[in-house]
Amino acid sequence: MDLKAHIKSAHGISALNARLRQIVYGGNDGIVTTFAVVAGFAGAGAEGTAQIGAVAVILFGLANLFADAASMGLGEYLSSRAERDVYRKNRREEIRRFRTETVSERKEVLAILAEKGLSGSDARAFADQLEHHPELMADFMMLYEFGLSAPEDGEEVWNGLTTFISFLAFGVLPLLPFFFGVAEADALAVSAGSSLGALLLLGLLRAQATGERHLRCVVETLLVGLVCGAVAYVVGWVVMSG
């Protein structure tokens, strides 16, 4: 039996659940990054949008979108790979310590079990079994001493790709009115509406995957986007006013 596949199937762990952090992380940053370009030019007032035009907004927006998506995706890949390397290094150290410092490692296991409510003969029996299986002992210590679980092979590649694709898929939405030739006077409102819709979708995805209340997820996601968009707008206004 493929235990990992069984666990995912039996407990309803979908691809959305498994990649939720990267989807929310990449999608939220993609929306905010691109809308910040639009809001920044809008904050500069009519002069700013008139001087640059829709084509320039698209160029600036797409340049930011793809550069930041690549940066975020590669950053997530490197971060995940670093986490994997740290896990493997610490796990090897735990196996070494178990073989050279068996008594002290056994005391650590008993202390962890006592914290979990298992003590006395049951804890000692559990520790006895672990002593016969160094690999299992190492996994136990990694989880309960360091709070780390074993990463899957290739996980860092999928994490990076998910972040990259989510950034692009959500980040392009604030630029849609400029692609479709919406009048400059209405472009900011339409872009803001597209951004709010994207943030709403992101909040609903988060709620669906985590089981949290929909209202809470949506409000939190919208607030982050609104704050970042407002900051970009104010910066544009201050620069042009100065």
TrEMBL record:
The cellular location(s) given in this protein's UniProt record come to: Endomembrane system
Its Gene Ontology cellular component terms are:
endomembrane system
Which Gene Ontology MF annotations are present? manganese ion transmembrane transporter activity
Q: Does the keyword Cell membrane apply?
A: no
Q: What superkingdom heads the lineage? A: Bacteria
Membrane topology of this protein: Multi-pass membrane protein
User: Main subcellular localization, coarse class?
Assistant: membrane
User: By its UniProt entry, which Pfam families does this protein fall under?
Assistant: VIT1
**Quick one: signal sequence residues?**
none
Listed transmembrane segments: 23-46, 52-74, 157-181, 187-205, 217-240
Keywords assigned:
Membrane, Transmembrane, Transmembrane helix
Q: Which GO terms describe its biological process?
A: intracellular manganese ion homeostasis
Indicate whether Transmembrane appears among the record's keywords: yes
Identify the PANTHER family for this entry: FE(2+)/MN(2+) TRANSPORTER PCL1 (PTHR31851)
Q: What's the protein here called? A: GMP synthase
Organism the protein comes from: Dinoroseobacter shibae (strain DSM 16493 / NCIMB 14021 / DFL 12)
